[in-house]
Amino acid sequence: MTSLAVTHTGTAYPSGRRARDRFVLARRTSRQALDPLAHQGVVIEPERAADGTRVDSVTVFLTGRECPWRCVMCDLWTHTTAAITPRGAIPLQIASAIAAIRQAPAMPPVIKLYNAGSFFDNHAVPPQDDGAIAEALRPFTRVVVESHPSLVGDRTWRLRDLLTRDGRTTRLEVAMGLETAHPNALERLNKGITVESFAKAARALAEREVDLRVFLLIHPPFVPPEEQDIWLTRSIGVAFDCGATVVSLIPTRGGNGALEALAAQADFVAPSLIDIEQSAAIGLSALSLGTNARGRLFIDTWDIERFATCRRCALPRQARLTQLNLDQRLPPPLACDACGEVTPS
């Protein structure tokens, strides 16, 4: 019999991974058909480097097999395939993306390969393709891939070695989602990690000179509204204590069905654009706390207009967050004559 964790509203949310998998899957919409030989887009944007300079960074959105974890907040599965990624597909996608990038005035030094899952998942990115992938990445000085903490291991070190052989100095960076350091919320996200297991993977990366980028959620489900700010501060501290050079705050997006079910039972409240600005201010303050204040804090501004309640100030607020990402300090506050909202500080 499936055991149930009962929320304060009386609505049952399953406990146990298999039951939660079913909860998530049952609320999905249909999956769009994707070509496994074609990437889903290329974006070039400036990013603040560790030395304070601005560098161009290119993100390639790869097409591959869906992640095996069924995180309750995830909507990335809509950008994946149900079938195992065929051999040769990922190098082909990367080559196509680089061909497009070469049309830009200059080749960006940083490339992010985001496959809506884990790069080290053998069903998403066949390991037989690692050599061809590393060879295609020769133009870049830094390569960022995303991974579930449990998949960090021998394949990670092999890719690092491929990127640095024959005198190359390409630096590998792995982006991992901690999401939140709130232990109960993290367990209920169905991600299959703990703060301790995340920290173990982070230590392995540091010991082998692989850089770490951490994703944290703004307004993750299961964290009480009145505790969101304090747990965001704690989560940022944990991420930097784990050796992160970058912490990226990602607003939790509804729309995957599961989050709507959690919202109905008051276990999830989507952030507003003002909440996101508040989180940015909290994040910059947290940079000066603890023993590791050398990292950078970014706000993910993709599709951020969906969180706006006022159309007149949405774009200026988005621009303000973009400026914050580049300068690593709070821009001047913004007050809107239409909605009356004032930027949190």
TrEMBL record:
GO terms for molecular function: catalytic activity; iron-sulfur cluster binding. This is Elp3/MiaA/NifB-like radical SAM core domain-containing protein. Residues 57-282 form the Elp3/MiaA/NifB-like radical SAM core domain.
